[in-house]
Amino acid sequence: MPNLIVKPLEHPHVEGSILKITPESAGWKYVGFEIVRLAAGQSLSRVTGEQEICLVLLSGKADVQTKEASWSDIGERMNVFEKIPPFSVYVPSDDQYEVAAKTAVELAICSAPGAGGYPARLIEPSHVGVETRGYGNIERQIHNILPENEPADSLLVVEVFTPNGHWSSYPPHKHDRDALPQESFLEETYYYRVDPGHGFAIQRVYTDDRSLDETLLVKDGEAVLVPRGYHPVCAPPGYDVYYLNVMAGPSRIWKFHNDPEHAWLMAKPVEE
């Protein structure tokens, strides 16, 4: 089992890559993830090969071009904690893309096996499903960037804002069995930003038999691998926590199983 925390580089590679997860480095099969930081005027060009890609503009503005389409000056938020949905671009396998930064850009490159079944497209903020999930101190804001009801071959992409003092990915749930319709097998990455940046988040990753049982202190700009098990998150008082989730597996459907010890929390208290 690799270390579940993936730390960013102190100095980015020449292309701007600051953090990279591949199926090989994670010890799994489906999910790839990368963070690239570009200065204004810098560009990144890649071919997709056998992977489909979801480019998420975490912050900044850019021009994006693929083989068949292009979009100019996309991007709106300058910081993820503005809490408005991002601009994203879906790029199929056997394609290519170029991202040209108009301002400083933080770009998430989400990848998973593709079959070339869908054309490249822009995912505008108005096309992102926004919802509030949970109640009380398990309430959080969800942005469904690439949910299962939107076309893609493998990828599921969502971002979550957890207010300070709150929990998310909670009650603890898992999706590590290919046992549909009850549960789907999905590998998952969490990419964290914390406000203020010197803070931290806490994430636990554990299985029923406790063969995996880790409690992680996660800092701003780090990522967490969730190969299996339950994976709740806590934002300490004083520190708002953002994370971007990427999931993929043999079936593109999110069916999770709650930890039976904590499933009772799904019953919202009756408000008097």
Automatic annotation (TrEMBL):
What GO terms are given for molecular function? isomerase activity
Give the Enzyme Commission number. 5.3.1.30
User: Which principal EC class is assigned to this enzyme?
Assistant: isomerase
Q: Mind listing the UniProt keywords for this protein, alphabetically?
A: Isomerase
Keyword Ligase in annotation: no
Report the domain of life of the source organism. Answer: Bacteria
The cross-references to NCBIfam families, in alphabetical order and at most eight, read: myo_inos_iolB
Protein name listed in UniProt: 5-deoxy-glucuronate isomerase
Look up and give the organism this protein is from: Paenibacillus marchantiophytorum
Q: Which gene encodes it?
A: iolB
